[in-house]
Amino acid sequence: MFTGIITAIGEVARVEPKAQEALLEIVCPYQALVLGESIAVDGVCLTVVAATGRGFTATASAETLARTTLGAKKSGDRVNLERALRVDDRLGGHIVAGHVDGVGRVRARITSGGEAERWQFDAPASVLKFIAEKGSIAIDGVSLTVNVVDSEGFEVTLVPFTLGHTTLGDKRAGAAINLEVDVLARYVARALEGVAPRGGVTADLLARAGFVGTKAP
């Protein structure tokens, strides 16, 4: 489990393709890495299979390579890193599982005179249905708040600190990014399967299902 607060930027040192998977070697500043521990690499939960002295190696399965941006990584690429959440850690972002739901793309970076930037992303329909205004989203492992949702994607605001301390600052229009929706959205959708009318999820339906309160008459 992760929080979406990036703690280091790593660099891909080597990608070694295998029969149905790939071995990734990541150079990073993490110390005292433990075999078997989980590290989120651009938002993808990977298991440390070896500590190299300058970082770690991890195996990405065929499923992971096909459903995330890790399949396109090459030597020299920078990646966002986060070690797994400890019980006594601060939850500074939101609950992130490291299970990527799909790959989206940067639509536009918009500056308006201030230091912060508005970023627009396109998202697959299978992912977009779980994204809500003022909800949380993990983009390449970075916890962000959704400001606007439209028919093709969504918009967030990125402050200078985030741009400077994650790889998002490297991205340009058209760049592919990993998306993970808020885990709560998945469970709400699952709980409402077979219950929602043709009109979709409504405030009344959520109230009857116990997810929101109802006003007293």
Descriptive labels:
217 residues; 5 helices; six-stranded antiparallel beta barrel; 2 domains; Elongation Factor Tu (Ef-tu), domain 3; six-stranded antiparallel barrel
Short description:
The termini are far apart. The chain is built from 5 helices and 12 strands.
Topology:
Layout lengths: L7 E10 L3 E7 L10 E4 L2 E8 L3 E7 H6 L10 E6 L18 E10 L5 E6 L2 H4 L7 E4 L2 E8 L3 E6 L1 H6 L10 E6 L1 H9 L11 H6 L9
Antiparallel strand pairs: 1-2, 1-6, 2-5, 3-4, 3-6, 4-5, 7-8, 7-12, 8-11, 9-10, 9-12, 10-11
Distance between the termini: 42 Å
Assign an overall shape.
globular
Largest sheet data: 6 strands, antiparallel, barrel
Which strand order does the major sheet show?
1-2-5-4-3-6
Count of alpha and pi helical runs: 5
**What structural class is derived from the secondary structure elements?**
mainly beta
SSE topology string: EEEEEHEEEHEEEHEHH
In the CATH hierarchy, the third-tier topology of the largest domain is known as Elongation Factor Tu (Ef-tu), domain 3
Low-confidence stretches: none
Work out the count of structural domains.
Answer: 2
Strand segment tally: 12
Secondary-structure arrangement, i.e. CATH architecture of the largest domain: Beta Barrel
